[in-house]
Amino acid sequence: MCEKCGNFLERFRFDEREYFALLGQLKRLVENRTFDEVADDMPLEFASDRKNWPVEGHIHHVFVCRDCQRRLELSFDTRRLAGMWDLARADANELSGR
Q1: Residue 73 Cα distances to 11, 51, 90, 92, angstroms
Q2: pTM of structure
Q3: Consecutive 10-residue averages of pLDDT for the chain (98 residues)
């Protein structure tokens, strides 16, 4: 298991309050060069301000571990105020042996 991202492999759901906490943690991980943000609907710095959110839509971020290249996804539904953290599909299939 990768030392950098091994603690981030568990899939979980979260609410708006937890989303803001995750954004802060992920910003630090990107700044510390643990993860790279490789795709997004909205840069992290804008996603942390509700005024920038789409009224009814999703905010999506994809991160890559700099050590093992595993891809992780953060998605948030701005209408339901709920989101999910998960392995990107290709990486999830690889870990499950598909």
Answers
A1: 10, 22, 11, 11
A2: 0.86
A3: 91 96 96 96 92 92 96 96 89 45
